[in-house]
Write a structure and sequence with these properties.
This protein is an all-alpha fold. The protein has 14 helices and no strands. This is DMT family transporter.
Length: about 300
């Protein structure tokens, strides 16, 4: 797989980065509870994907029921649970802290994947540990800057870090599920489970699911069309043309992309005191991704789950 990017693939990657970069700003803009936004983006995605999946992968769905793909089915369900927790932490974080900080902290997913692999007894390259150390130091500096601002911003930072952890768990479970079933079938099951869980949390917690203004509904549709469908699809297409490392590093552009959109659209100027930490964090994550290509035990791919 080549690391060189042809013009068509370059355009595809640029559109994908723009799509996922819109996730944080759209969530911050929407005048609705974060959990309600998370539910609707999954529910609408399921409604859009399931008819296509049932028509194209009907035999796989029947295999899940008959037990032929029982293990993959359970991994898909578990991934849906992890995705629900990811959305329940990441999306509220965007409304509590700045878009730039929340997006950077949730991008620590590859670092969490390596930490999980280490706990499982897998040996990580020295370069990976250097990257992890840089990311941790950067996160401490960035969150420390927010601690000086307000407890609310610090809470948002911690939720974003938790979102990055759960994105790593979601990705690891998804990789196990897709060993025997297609991405389409896996996504349908995973998103459905995620949506049902988020609906239950909203109903139990009394979170309103309707009554939003037109701009908020447009923002939710933008999340579905952009980050949930277009971004994922474009990155999947790009993986046929370039290496996973190239795609993972391109996804990191979501951080400055989201910060730029939030600055222009929402007037969120990144705090100067947090910028050194965010830059160091991104450098650390990039080092982890590149180092992962040299290890057979763990290759930390950054999923566009924002």
């Amino acid at each position: 797989m080549s690391s060189r990017v042809d013009p068509v693939t370059g355009v595809v990657l640029a559109v994908a980065v723009l799509a996922v970069s819109s996730s944080g700003p759209l969530t911050a803009f929407a005048a609705a509870p974060a959990l309600a936004i998370a539910f609707w983006r999954n529910a609408i995605a399921v409604a859009a994907l399931t008819p296509f999946a049932a028509a194209r992968r009907g035999e796989e769905f029947r295999g899940l029921v008959r037990g032929e793909h029982r293990a993959a089915g359970w991994f898909s369900v578990a991934a849906g649970v992890a995705l629900a927790v990811h959305f329940s932490t990441w999306m509220p974080s965007v409304q509590l802290t700045s878009v730039a900080t929340a997006t950077a902290l949730v991008a620590t997913q590859p670092v969490w994947q390596c930490a999980i692999a280490s706990l499982q007894g897998k040996r990580l390259p020295v370069t990976t540990w250097i990257g992890i150390s840089l990311a941790v130091i950067g996160a401490v500096i960035a969150t420390g800057a927010d601690f000086e601002v307000s407890a609310t911003a610090l809470t948002g930072d911690l939720l974003a870090l938790a979102g990055g952890l759960m994105a790593a768990v979601y990705t690891a479970l998804g990789e196990r599920a897709r060993v025997t079933i297609s991405t389409t079938t896996y996504t349908s099951v995973c998103y459905s489970v995620c949506g049902v869980l988020l609906l239950g949390v909203c109903l139990v917690g009394g979170v309103p699911l309707i009554g939003f203004d037109g701009a908020t509904w447009l923002a939710i549709l933008g999340l579905v069309a952009g980050a949930q469908l277009l971004g994922h699809s474009m990155f999947s297409f790009a993986l046929r043309k370039v290496s996973a490392t190239t795609v993972s590093l391109m996804i990191l552009l979501e951080v400055p992309g989201a910060a730029l959109i939030a600055w222009i659209w929402l007037g969120q100027v990144p705090r100067a005191s947090a910028l050194p930490g965010l830059a160091l964090l991104m450098l650390g994550v990039a080092v982890v991704i590149v180092a992962g290509t040299r290890s057979r035990d763990v290759t930390p791919a950054r999923a566009a789950s924002s």
